[in-house]
Amino acid sequence: MAFEDRVTELAGDVYPPDGGAAERARERSLALAKPPGSLGEIEDLGARLAAISGRVPPPVPEDPAVIVCAGDHGVLGRGVSPWPREVTAAMVRNFCGDGAAVNAIAKSVGARVSVLDVGVATELARHPRLRTARVRPGTDDLSLGPAMGREEAARALMSGAGMAEELVGSGVDLLVTGDMGIGNTTPAAALVSAFTGRPPEETTGRGTGIDDETLRLKRSVVEEALALHDPDPKDPLGVLAALGGLEHAAIAGVILAGAANGTPVVLDGVISNSAALVARALVPDSTGYLVAGHLSAEPGASVALEHLGLRPLLDLGLRLGEGTGGLLAVPLVRAAARVLGEMALLEDLELG
């Protein structure tokens, strides 16, 4: 079976979240021992978790895992980032060696860390934490031609889905998306513009901290890519192949597999947000399984989240990626489920 056909099959396994469970969760929240609405967005999050699980109260996630999807980018040759391509592989080794921010934060919230190589240009040594599913050693330059072929995009997507399904099968009950790829905010900006219709000046940011001149170049590259490919949002796999990265594709697969398995998926920053736009275009109901962990400092993040209809739980000025912002939101997800399950009802209080 072609990988594109497998994507279609996976998409068919995603069903709408349980709206009835969400409504029952809202009713229960109103009956808890507190003023109505006083827990704000935690109450909305509890209702979303109930819809995902179909249970009221929803189960408290006990075994979260972050999947850091990694790949390299041909567009880096245009000078959109001052960092060399080799940093991608170096950081993957750092993830495996337990020395990155994602590792430290994962420990603080009790999450597993898994790394998926779908397109790192440098050969990597085997490691228990690393899954090698390299589709190709990085993408082509999206400003000169398609970043990858349709079947390659589909294969990368299914690699992410496969890893998510494996983790869920091992007991993981909350997925967090993460990324690593020098230059990957450029394809993210292109994807956000393609799916939202917003211009590159609104979706393209400084990434790792580029200066004004490089930012102007980066925006110009995104404009060139959009003009070259004239992406059609009704053909999401085609848009992904033309403009995306292999890690963007893999994250879209993580999202679809999470949705198909009834597992909530916490998004990290702009890379994950752009991948969520791909997933939404493939399966609109997949958005109902998403939690926006935080608002990235990248401008494309707010544009993408607005289009997805998601409100971020945190706004800390983060722009690192790796899954760090998504992991920081894990305690809030747990708290939202625990509130619905463990708070007393107002009618049970002994007054007087």
Write the SSE topology.
Blueprint: H1 3-11, H2 19-31, H3 41-53, E1 64-71, H4 86-96, H5 101-109, E2 112-119, E3 130-132, H6 150-169, E4 174-180, H7 185-196, H8 200-203, H9 212-229, H10 236-243, H11 246-260, E5 265-267, H12 270-282, E6 290-292, H13 299-308, H14 324-328, H15 330-342
Parallel strand pairs: 1-2, 1-4, 2-3, 4-5, 5-6
Helix pairs in contact: 1-6, 2-3, 3-15, 6-10, 6-11, 7-9, 7-10, 7-12, 7-13, 10-12, 11-12, 12-13
What keywords describe this structure?
352 residues; 6-stranded parallel beta sheet; Nict_dMeBzImd_PRibTrfase_N; glycosyltransferase; 15 helices; nicotinate-nucleotide-dimethylbenzimidazole phosphoribosyltransferase activity; Rossmann fold; 2 domains; alpha/beta; 5,6-Dimethylbenzimidazole Phosphoribosyltransferase, Chain: A, domain 1; 49% helix; globular; 6 strands; Nict_dMeBzImd_PRibTrfase_sf
What do these coordinates show?
There is one protein chain. This protein has 352 residues and is an alpha/beta fold. It has 2 domains: 68 residues, Nicotinate-nucleotide-dimethylbenzimidazole phosphoribosyltransferase (CobT), small domain (5,6-Dimethylbenzimidazole Phosphoribosyltransferase, Chain: A, domain 1, Orthogonal Bundle); 269 residues, Nicotinate-nucleotide-dimethylbenzimidazole phosphoribosyltransferase (CobT), large domain (Rossmann fold), CATH 3.40.50. It is 49% helix and 9% strand. The chain contains 15 helices and 6 strands. A 6-stranded parallel beta sheet has the order 3-2-1-4-5-6. Helix 12 links the parallel strand 5 and strand 6. Helix 2 packs across helix 3, helix 7 packs across helix 9 and helix 10 runs antiparallel to helix 12. The longest helix is centred in the middle third of the chain and has 20 residues. The radius of gyration is 20 Å and the shape is globular. The mean pLDDT is 97.
